[in-house]
Give the backbone structure.
Amino acid sequence: MFAIHETSPNVRNMKQLQYAVLAKRASRIKEEIRQRVRKPFKDLIEVYWGDPHRGGVKPLTFVQQVLAACVYPQLVDSDELPVDVRQRAELLLKGCAGGSVGSYTATQGVPQIVHRISEFITRRDGGAPCDPENIYISPGSQWGLMNVLNVLVDAEASPRAGVLTPRPCYLTSNQSMVALGAVAVPYDLCEERGWELRVEELRRALESAEGVCRPVALYVINPGNPAGHVQSRKSMREVIRFVSENRLFLLADEVYQDCVYGEHSEFVSYKRVLTEMGPPLSDTVELASFHSASKGFMGECGLRGGYVELVNLDPAVMKYIYTLFSADSCAPVLGQFALDLLAKPPQPGDPSYPLYKEETQRIRSTLVRNVKRVFEVVNSLPGLCCQPVEGGAFAFPRLHLPPKAIRRAEEMGMQPDMFYCTRLLEEAGVLVCPGCEFEPKEGTYHFRCCIMVPEDVMEELLRRLTSFHTQFMTDFS
């Protein structure tokens, strides 16, 4: 039998996820409900994941129809689907060997799809040119991040490579870095200022790495996960100057770019800001920008389609990037198709456009209302507060727990916010993610809640949270 001491030390250094404990218990609770075991709730509300379809958001009709026709090409020749759906499916299948979604594609992705993604990026970035040769499609954006990190991180180097990462941070990203042998160097987002990214904090983090590791990259998430902050152009320019001065590679996770709700917020890509800054920065700062079909209004998490655009990399390095992506053969074909539909959705005049516009506007309106309601309700409860959610898919409320609750959690060998979330699951049937998963600032407690759910689900969630939290604070006061 393979012994634990024989496993990779990098793998052993990966943090154990609290998700596994909560998900296992949630699964048992669902089974108990099916067996009619009495509970103080009739069903589970699962808002742990950033998975819109799991949360009850309906898939976009145009996307589902095109994918259906691609999987069952006989639909292309029928009158059961709108003509633009059938034309799009036919176009996508022509890019596949044998006209089938079951065939392999080129390493970077179906060439026509890669080209349409490059056109999408150029439109998004106000005309900034995008070379299709710099785009790689992957099975989700995190897969692309792993491949880029593989190039940046030498696991055998001494000192080890370091990556500056936000705190709180989407845990999967940190796990990827640790698994490759890198050191995650945290920089704190300022919660009191709406989770703002401050360059002076980046400088502090960089100094803290001295003697520990050799920082090679800065990882930013914009819009934020889990915190929901949207960076301003001014902030992004400061970050770009910082990475240039310190010779750091910039990793920009921009998968929630379609989800911006703040009244004075807008999403601007790092690629666009870098281009606007002009030479020498626009010619020298190395950047990898990630996007995905899993997030935003499309929400096709299970199709596993993401891409990375690489900017200003040495051509010799790009050869190794190609080799790394080649090892995966290709990204799932349906995930590539989803990216194509993200890059070029129905346009005015197309038969599918009215319904597509109606569905996306309904989702956006729901999210805006959900953000407002979460802010109102959470901030009305004692011991809870939440910064305004400007973008992304989550609210990240802060818990000010009574000392008695913290002591009880410690007695049970649990993090205080894990203790709170476990009780919330058991007593109210609400599955949220404990803040300790995201390694926030020491001494602070939070939970993450997905806001990409229908309004009635959000209202029921807030009703249960209010009732549970009020009782919890009374029990531990």
